[in-house]
Structure formats: C-alpha cells, structure tokens
Amino acid sequence: MNPSEPTNALRFLSIDAVQKANSGHPGMPMGMAEIAVALWKNHLKHNPLNPKWFNRDRFVLSNGHGSMLLYSLLHLTGYPINIDDIKDFRKLKSKTPGHPEYDIDSGIETTTGPLGQGIANAVGMAIAEKSLAAQFNTDEMSPVDHFTYAFVGDGCLMEGVSHEACSFAGTHKLGKLICFYDQNGISIDGQIDNWFTDNTVERFNSYGWQTIEVDGHNIEEISEAIVSSKQEVGKPSMIFCKTTIGFGSPNKSGTSGVHGSPLGDDEIKKTREALGWNYEAFEVPEGVYKFWDAKDSGKTENENWDALMDSYMANNPEKHAELLRRINGNLTDNFEENFANFLEEANENKSVMATRKASQVCLDFFVKELPELMGGSADLTPSNNTFSSSSSVFFNNSPGGNHINYGVREFGMSAMMNGMTLHGGVKPYGATFLVFTDYARNALRLSALMGLPNTFIYTHDSIALGEDGPTHQPIEHLVTLRATPNLNNWRPADLVETAISWRNAVTSEDTPTCLIFSRQNTSVLSRNPDQIDAIEKGGYLIKETSEPQLTIIASGSEVQLAIDASGELEKQNIRANVVSMPCLDIFLNQSEEYQLSVLGKNIPTLAVEMAHPDSWYKLLNKSDKVLGIKSFGESAPANDLLEHFGFTLPNVVSMAKSLLDEESS
Asked: pTM of this prediction?
C-alpha cells in the first residue's frame, strides 16, 4: 500500500460524495486530511463497536461544513456508516446530512454547522470531564479520564461565541481540551486578509492556552504537537495547522472555488492524477480499510476500562453506583417520594414571592436531590437566583463544584451547556434575563434540534421589571420560544407551578425546557389535589364556575389578575372560568377532549399575558381577544407600566364584557 493512500482515501471519499450530491464542501476535508490521520490513527481513544462508551475521547467537528471528512473517518474506522451511506450524502433521511447531526450510534457527537458552536460544545464537554473526574477519580483509579478534541476553521474563530467559550476555557484551565485550527486563510468570500487579520496565536496566548504552530500537512509534526498538548494538563491547547484548502486540486487548491462547491468531473480527474489515486469513485482498497480499522483497538481500550470499573466497584462501591447512575441518566432512588413531600410543603407555603425566588426555593430541593445538576448564570446570579443551599463554586481550586459563574456570555453558556449534556453525567442549567435569549438563540435552537434536555432559566419575564426600560423588557420572546419545535416553555404563576415546571425540566429525556420567571411578586394561589395533578398537562382550570359564559386564560403573574377579574365579573352576574396556562407547548399536545374540557365549548375566550399576543391564536377563534403587547416597553415604574399597557382589573373586566356584548349583538 502506498503510504499516502490512507490520507488520500479521506480526500477522495469526500470529493466523490460531494460530486455525486452536486453539493457540499470538499475543500476542508482535502486540506485537513493529514490532521485527521495524525489524530484518529495515532491518538484518538474510541470504540466503533460501542460508540456510547463513556470514557471515550470526544471529537467535535466545529467546522461542520466539512462533514464529509467526519463521515469518511467514521466509515473507514468501523462505525455503522457504510459506503452506500457515503454515496447518499445530503439525500433525504440519509445518515450523512449536509452538516453533522447528532447521532451517537453512528459516532457523531454533536450537531455542527452554525460556526463557533462546535468549539463551545467541546468546552462544555471538557467542563463535564473535569467536574466528574474531580468527583469520582481517586488517587489509585481514574474512571473518568479522556480528552476532548475539536477541529475548527477560520469561520469558527470569527464568530463571537468562540471568544466567549475559549476565554472561559483558558480561565478554567481545561487542560484535557485540544483543538486544531485549520489555518487555510480562505472562506466563502475568498482570501480572508480583508476581513480577518487577528493574531490568533497571541489571542489564544492571552486566553491562557498553550499554542503550537505546525505544518498542517506533516503528520509526524502534528502528532508530536498532540503529544505536547496531552502533556500540558494546566492549559487547553490550540494547534495552529497551516494548510492549503482543497489540497491536491491542480486548479482550485488555495481558492474559495473549492470551499463550498463540487470540484467538477474534469478537476476531479486531474486531482486523481496529481495525487496518484488510481481508483474509481467510492473505491477504497482493502489495505486502506485495514489501516483505518479501529474496532479491535477500540474494543481493547473499552475492555481495559471495563476491568478498571470492576476494580473501582470493589474498592469504591458507593462512588461506582453513583457514577453509573449519572452515566445512565437515572433519577435517585427516592426522588419521586421526596418530590411529593416537597410539593406538599410548597402547596402549604403561603409566602408571597416572585417566581424567580420560587425557583431558588425549588433549586434548594433539586440540587440536593440530584447532585448531577450543575448550573449557573451569565453574570446575574443574584438576579436569577441560581445559587442553591447545596451549591459550591466550580473553579480551578474546586473543580468538583456545581455552580458556574459564566460571566457575561449568554451564547457561550448555552452552547457549553449543550456540550455538557452531550458528554453525559451532568444535568446543566443556565440563566439570564428573558430578553437576552436573543443572544443565546441559536444554541437554544440546536439544543431543541438535538433533543438535549437542558434547563434554561429566564427571569425578568415582562414589562413589570420596570425602570430598566424597553432594552430589558421582553415582548416577542415568548412567541419565538413557543414557535421552536421540541421546546417546552414554562411560565409558572407561583411556587407550586414552579415546582412542577422544575420537575418537568429535570425529568425530561429529549426536550429542553425554558423556565420563565418573574421579577415582581406573585400571589399564592389555592388549588385542590386534582388541579395540582393537572398542572403537568400544561394548562388547567384554576377557577371553575357552573355554566360559564366565557373563559379567561393567563400565565405567570397575570393568573391572579384573571382570577380577580372573574370575581369582579361574578359581582355583575357574569360567570367566567379561569385557566392557568403555565406551559402552552405541553397543553397543545394534550387530547382535543382535554383541551375542550379546560377551554370550554362554544364560549368566548380572553387571553391575558404581558407579551406579544400571537402565541394564543392557536387556541382562539377570530372573535376572541388577547390582552397583550405589540410595541416595545417603556422606562417607568412597574405599576405605571401596567396601567399604561392595560394590565389592570378594570381593563380586563371591560375586555371580558366586550366579548359578551359582541356575541349578543
């Protein structure tokens, strides 16, 4: 076998798949092939026969447009991606979509493509590894001991989220994180000299990273850099790999023409000649398959860890059982019983509090009950109330801590949370103000797309936060969150609903949860046991009258306003049911029979919520009404804003009566 064939196999599988699909990015796989050989052949610890092996090294392709490089590596090393899957690149429902999509059974650790988020995911994985190692490793045994590797490109480092995550990684000395920067100097628009001239080496030095510069086409030099990176346990490492995009293409290498377009039949023929690849499209010689096959070596690595775990169990039975529980994502043995007791206490608690404070009361229970909960805030801990009575700070002198000070990094925090969940063994939560979901939006979207059960805490949920004004008052945010597939958005009205929403979040298996809390105090609401049970259905009748003439729906702090309006209407001989709707997303998934039992049949409806009204039209008829907000907020005390925007008892009563007047006219 020609020594270059294993490397060129990566190139030509990528070239041929992109050509067959008539779509894709061949340039990066052609340019990073030697880097892939150095890592995947000489250093990466993984088992194609057991892709979920917990102590495997994690690999993230942050520059996800080069997905064919990853698919080629997975195919050649023995994962369940066969040659037909390679040929089906970018076809509907194929295993090889245009950008990598999370599929751990096929060896794909995370969804990438939106640039910069992959490296942030890798930082999150390294956080999880460091935290678990601190909690479970002993002087004699290290059941948690692996590296996280990431390939990144120019675009990843242009995106601001890379600064958020990489700065954080350096501060926290994540020495088990090793990244490879494909320094080819080309993006879609051409040579990047006109728009990206950062001294990236000095940038990463300033973060506190180890930096190593290599020839990205010299396998031995790259491998030596990996060895040095693995030895530097006190710093994450960035290996700067000078490469040529589209390496081997006589006419397109080093140009943007090979970045995001197929080479074309003529250029592919010339590239085969230039690189001495004398095989047809998708033909791989047997010697190349033998070179790359990692099944036996992976099986051995896995078995060695299994043996270590047997010894660990014998010597540390309690730690072993707890580690396995976290790896498997199981709840603690007495969780349901303990939660039932906590919920009973919450129902008996008559303290008036903001739901952000109610969330902290819940966290005091949940963090103690589930030590895998690891979370924090984007520099708003006192405002978001994310530090529980069982919290301790995660930092270099306390890596076993469970509270993270993320700094002002909403996007980075959310993308790192995705990486933590993907790693396994921890349940992350992260918090900021609801209005700043704008910063975090794409990471939140990828969490939903991947089915990651993250918990996102968003406080200061409405204009009622007051004087900070429209820059901080969310209006359209609930609508956009509710429009996101596979995302549950809870806006509870009091401590009891907050407890149920937190339980929904921590027990979710494949759906992320947004917990949306108020700054202002909310009332203590009374419920019977059936109503408490119904909260988990997303919406329920919190006040029911006989032969109702209309229904008033509300969420969060507005539920008490709706109840008060119903009472005032009752004085005027108008019967109104009140529905508390803490999670519209879950309610819409209930049966039509249940929805009608809550909303009522053939009666007008008024929805009341301090947000843009569009969410509610899924439930309403054209003649129904919503008291919402279609403009940005204002800077003023909260009570003045409620008056200005109509969230007053007289206005709600007037709108409710107008529904009956219009119905009778």
From this structure: 0.98
